[in-house]
Amino acid sequence: GAGVSQSPRYKVAKRGQDVALRCDPISGHVSLFWYQQALGQGPEFLTYFQNEAQLDKSGLPSDRFFAERPEGSVSTLKIQRTQQEDSAVYLCASRDQASGNTIYFGEGSWLTVV
Amino acid sequence: DAKTTQPPSMDCAEGRAANLPCNHSTISGNEYVYWYRQIHSQGPQYIIHGLKNNETNEMASLIITEDRKSSTLILPHATLRDTAVYYCIVRVAASNTGKLIFGQGTTLQVKP
pLDDT-derived band of residue B21, with 50, 70 and 90 as boundaries? Predict the structure, then answer.
């Protein structure tokens, strides 16, 4: 597609429920990033993939957060046993290494844990 | 990656130029200056980036001082749709990760 696509756009989860957020990067983009953005804050880095390899997961806040990109294209961010502090916008981004390494973001998945 | 400092908020009259400053006094020689903006309820949008020369595209101009310790993003004719949070970020473009580290940004309010 033309841009980074994320789904679902909005998700309400009950505390303790598992959620999965999907990201379709721009076609041909090797690099993929996940960010978490709490209300009123700037995005915070979670993890980075180069093709299917997860090269940096230093930003994942706990072992309840897991990301995968098994075929080097679509990625899924999974949050197990959600807690209220997980409520945030989860942003996916992909990078075009061919033209200045510009990073392009999706619209985000808004997660509310009740 | 070097840290940046931006004013928390700014106002601008519609139709006038908006000049958004950014300090990055600890920038390294191989770090680029990137600007992104985030309109309410949307993902961050790339605006422009530069290394040491001034840059211009269809959205904005980027002026980087000669010592590279500060820069200014210029929106030449601000419109109401330019109301957003503007982030100034420095990073090594070709680093292994190349991840963006966001600060708090500047909230620009364009007023009619």
Answer: very high
Please indicate if any CB of chain B lies within 8 Å of the CB of A95. yes
Q: How far are the Cα atoms of A11, A14, A96, B63, B66 from residue B89, in angstroms, in the given order?
A: 30, 36, 17, 14, 18
Q: What is the pLDDT of residues A27-40, one digit of tens each?
A: 989 999 999 999 98
CB-CB neighbours of A5 under 10 Å = 16
Mean pLDDT in chain A?
Answer: 94
A with B: how many residue pairs have Cβ under 8 Å apart?
50
CB contact under 8 A, A107 and B87: no
pLDDT, one tens digit per residue, over B44-67 is 999 999 999 899 999 999 999 999
Measured on CA atoms in the order B33, B34, B38, B44, is the torsion positive or negative?
Answer: negative
Beta bridge partners of A102: A96
pLDDT above 80 (res A73): yes
Q: What is the mean pLDDT of chain B?
A: 92
Distance in angstroms (rounded) separating the CA atoms of residues A89 and A67: 16
Contacts of A67 in chain B (CB under 8 A): none
Is the separation of the CB atoms in A44 and A35 below 8 Å? yes
CB–CB contact B102 A43 (8 Å): yes
**Residue B103 and residue B88 in contact, taking contact as beta carbons nearer than 8 Å:** yes
Return the sign of the alpha-carbon dihedral for residues A33, A107, B35, A62.
negative
